[in-house]
């Protein structure tokens, strides 16, 4: 809202008679005006608009103007009513016309003052807070109730409420303990601006503006620090992506305000983030990597080679790490010989159950660490890609232009598009690991398809990232004559990898957002029998669906053939590429 006008010191009077036009509202602004008239142009999906603070204030003014006109009240009074009704204009109008007196009483909007004074020129009356006497017509102010207070006491009361009470200042009442009259924005403006408290007045206007946004179902503030923009989101039907980007360059999910997380739903994101912060993971680590002292039961971690452990004070118990038996008289423990019953396989004993729990916890922890490390690593890779992309835009494109003198800046758009694709795909790949963690472990067909789709997408992204990151460097040092032909080949390769990678990730996102409903839709790879394979280079044993070795990135030598057209890996059980439908030339497909 625009700054409210304030009068000079000689114009002090009851706020009820203030000049409401000082609010500088524009009566020509209608509530049903489209935000598009002054908002940022819609996204490619055309389902959200970025609103700056001034634009939000105009929307807020529309509500105030409509209520003022329909209810025949001042705009100041409309500012009091709307926050109480959470800016729901229809609800306010219905209740007002059903029982105006009840609404006034609820909000503290009085029709006439409780205390009336004969405003003579030299009338002196005491302030209700400090009890000093002041000239009524110059130094005393009142809300709609008429209770008199001096301007200094008003300023202290209002400022304290704004600074300490926060949004509660929008429901400020008369300082008189027995009075429930509301303190309106006209009086607040007059008091604060005439006492040089512009900062507090600015906070009040901010709280009023934020109350409007926070009560709107389709508008939310951008969560980025120090950003004053909000985003209005419209669901246009069908499958909706909540990914939005603010003018401050912050991209996030509008629905849950976390980072963009397609193809994972907001509920799963909440569980994953909570899990990463949850202390239960620490408890699970303790269970996996420690054993309880046989005497005091405190968990102990073995951090040295010797199996003779001594529990810390005050326990001091000495025992063997392997069998948890006592070390008597420091002579050691002889548990190398197998004796029947030395391994407790009785499911009814606590030792058996503890060991079973340790093994189960270790399995769960290893699985969690597998997904978390890859989720975290792709996040770091995305951050590094953003840094590299900034360098490409500010330095490398300029260097290429100096080397290839006959080129224009838009001739290097393919490099920009490649880096944009890398950043976007890194974010998607990051969240597929959270998706994979919560997949039911007994859904074997879906799990295999998921890992197949994820593996193809990840392999393609690594090729694209390497090409854009490493192969570009050689063209920053070559002479124009030496770089000309090879640069054309580089462009063809990078454009192709960008397109193919985008196709992989589009297919991956679509499949995951649909819940992998029909495995047959995604090619014969869904039905391919999963058998583990051993990497020829590093001997690491990989799951059958892995396209590349998880340890050294060597390609799977068996079970897949590479499409000459789009480079995707296809199971040997099919003769046509399930990505581009091209035939396998080696198998004679047509």
From TrEMBL:
EC number: 2.3.2.31
GO terms of biological process kind: protein ubiquitination
Cited Gene3D superfamilies: 1.20.120.1750, Zinc finger, RanBP2-type, Zinc/RING finger domain, C3HC4 (zinc finger)
UniProt KW keywords: Acyltransferase, Ligase, Metal-binding, Repeat, Transferase, Ubl conjugation pathway, Zinc, Zinc-finger
RING-type domain span: 123-345, 127-175
UniProt entry tagged with the keyword Metal-binding: yes
Any GO molecular function: ubiquitin protein ligase activity
Pfam families found in the cross-reference section: Ariadne (PF19422), IBR (PF01485), IBR_1 (PF22191), UBA_ARI1 (PF21235)
Positions of the UniProt region annotated as Disordered: 1-26
Cofactor(s) required for function per UniProt: Zn(2+)
UniProt xrefs under InterPro entries: Ariadne (IPR045840), ARIH1-like_UBL (IPR048962), E3_UB_ligase_RBR (IPR031127), IBR_dom (IPR002867), TRIAD_supradom (IPR044066), Znf_RanBP2 (IPR001876), Znf_RING (IPR001841), Znf_RING/FYVE/PHD (IPR013083)
Function: Might act as an E3 ubiquitin-protein ligase, or as part of E3 complex, which accepts ubiquitin from specific E2 ubiquitin-conjugating enzymes and then transfers it to substrates.
Family of this protein: Belongs to the RBR family. Ariadne subfamily.
Protein name: RBR-type E3 ubiquitin transferase
